[in-house]
Amino acid sequence: MKNIKIFGSIPAIVTPFKKNGDLDLPALEKVVQYQLDGGVDAIVVAGSTGEAATLNDEEYVTVVKTVVKKVAGKVPVIAGAGSNDTKKAVNLSLLAKSVGADALLHVTPCYNKPTPNGLVLHFKEIANAVDLPIIIYNVPGRTGSNVMPSTIIRIAREVPSVIAVKEASGSLNQMMEIINEVEKNRPKDFAVLSGDDALTLPLISVGGKGCISVVCNEVPKLFSDMIHFALEGNSKSLREAKKLHYQMLPLMNINFIESNPIPVKAVMSMMGFIENSLRLPLTILEDKNKPAVERVLKDLNLI
């Protein structure tokens, strides 16, 4: 298994589409380069922000392969490969590995409502089939089921290739429960990453290791600087991190004025990186919300 460390500023990048719905690979490469120039520590491709649910297998392979080639080993590439069908999750994982992904992001299965035992077996099956590091993605707002800290820790203990969790429960207390177990060295070196941009700084202050982020698409340098300052941990660095946190907070919040990735795609379009195109059932940002988004972008000198 690849020996990589998951930490820091990790954008979950958008998947650019043309107006006709086809993949826009030159725009994807442009987005990736913007992230690399911003000093990110890894890149997630084909996650929720990347509209992975609407990619067929051929498109999925193309997107992951394009990102891997553009990154060229500068940072780890983490491929979203989750499914509520374990066999499909295994298949996506094998496809991601075949085109050079360094690690996998697996959302906990939605709709089926697996028990803790089922979740453990789900991750064991993936790990047995694909020797890549795995990040659990707990996002109750999308899956309808919150995976409790005890289950996260159990998976991490019983499945050694599970090395991190993207925690998007919105509960800092829940995240701290996981960190408390990790800091007892059970399991060793397990990373707790924020799945909510606005909770990244608070989470790092209590032992978190970074964030898999939406806002990093738009402001990779600002977000990376904030995280790196926060991880340094001295009083001067924390003051700088706090300043950057509050500078970006309006953008972090406006990114969820509608379902992600609707706002971030509108922003990236306004900034000239991509066309403002999504796949149904997602639609473009409503006209009534555009003025609020534009105000935030002007305040940050992004447009």
From TrEMBL:
Q: Which domain of life is it from?
A: Bacteria
Residues noted as binding pyruvate in the record, renumbered to the chain: 49, 212
Q: Lineage from the top down?
A: Bacteria, Candidatus Nomuraibacteriota
Q: Where is this site: Part of a proton relay during catalysis?
A: 48, 111
As for family, the record states: Belongs to the DapA family.
**A Pfam short name:** DHDPS
Which CDD domains does the UniProt record give? DHDPS
Q: What class of enzyme is it?
A: lyase
Q: How does it assemble?
A: Homotetramer; dimer of dimers.
Name of protein:
4-hydroxy-tetrahydrodipicolinate synthase
Q: What does this protein do?
A: Catalyzes the condensation of (S)-aspartate-beta-semialdehyde [(S)-ASA] and pyruvate to 4-hydroxy-tetrahydrodipicolinate (HTPA).
Listed under catalytic activity are: L-aspartate 4-semialdehyde + pyruvate = (2S,4S)-4-hydroxy-2,3,4,5-tetrahydrodipicolinate + H2O + H(+)
Q: Which Gene3D superfamilies match?
A: Aldolase class I
Q: Which GO terms describe its biological process?
A: diaminopimelate biosynthetic process; lysine biosynthetic process via diaminopimelate
Molecular-function GO terms, alphabetical: 4-hydroxy-tetrahydrodipicolinate synthase activity
Q: Which UniProt keywords apply?
A: Amino-acid biosynthesis, Cytoplasm, Diaminopimelate biosynthesis, Lyase, Lysine biosynthesis, Schiff base
| Cited InterPro entries | Aldolase_TIM (IPR013785), DapA (IPR005263), DapA-like (IPR002220), Schiff_base-form_aldolases_AS (IPR020625), Schiff_base-form_aldolases_CS (IPR020624)
Pathway linked to the protein: Amino-acid biosynthesis; L-lysine biosynthesis via DAP pathway; (S)-tetrahydrodipicolinate from L-aspartate: step 3/4
Q: What is its EC number?
A: 4.3.3.7
Give the transmembrane region(s).
none
